[in-house]
Write a structure and sequence with these properties.
- It is built from 5 helices and 5 strands; from the N terminus they run H-H-E-E-E-H-E-E-H-H.
- The protein is of the alpha+beta class.
- It has a 5-stranded antiparallel β-sheet with strand order 3-2-1-4-5, with no helix packed on it.
- The longest helix is centred in the N-terminal third of the chain and has 35 residues.
- The radius of gyration is 32 Å and the shape is elongated.
Amino acid sequence: GGISRIRVPMSSFFRGSSIRGFAQMRQSLFSGARSMTTAAPAFEGSHQDPVWFRFARGVVRYVAIPVFAYKVIDNASDLTLFGVVYDPANTAQTTAKVVVNTKGNDGYGSFWFEYQVDGETFTSTRLTPSTFLPSAIAPELVAKYPAGSVVQCKYIKSHPSFAFLEEGYDTVDARRTALWMAAFDGVLVFLSYRLFKRVGAISLAKLRR
């Protein structure tokens, strides 16, 4: 049938079998404490490392790896949009203003412009549709669009937030390649996460063994 509850007076708690139960509980507690003491050194290795090592490990784990992963994700996003959205047969033109252009002749640096479509303001960092700027044409395009200049940009009609200034070397056939490159970037992000976890477990004491 059901389970009945038995009330035991406090005065008899330390008598008979209760004493044996209390002794077993105390033994279990001491055994657990000994186990934690034995296992403690496995978790204390990182705390025993010198300050300079812990600082360097923190910089790599919380600065270098996240910054790298962010740049890879940003690049993957640009490539994915190019591979999915770009369609030169579905473009329109509008006036744009270059706000920032710090790109050098190598094609690297900050760049973005503003434009409006149907009264809504957009910004874009795409000098070319894929954002890839080959060194062969970089000096010419960088000089052509200085900060503050008012120019004409192209945008995708069905995705007005996707805009660019020059076609560059980008073609429709390059879209598939861009998607493969974005997939590779996804692998790099996954590896960055694995590296983030492994760096956290590195201990100078373990390396010296």
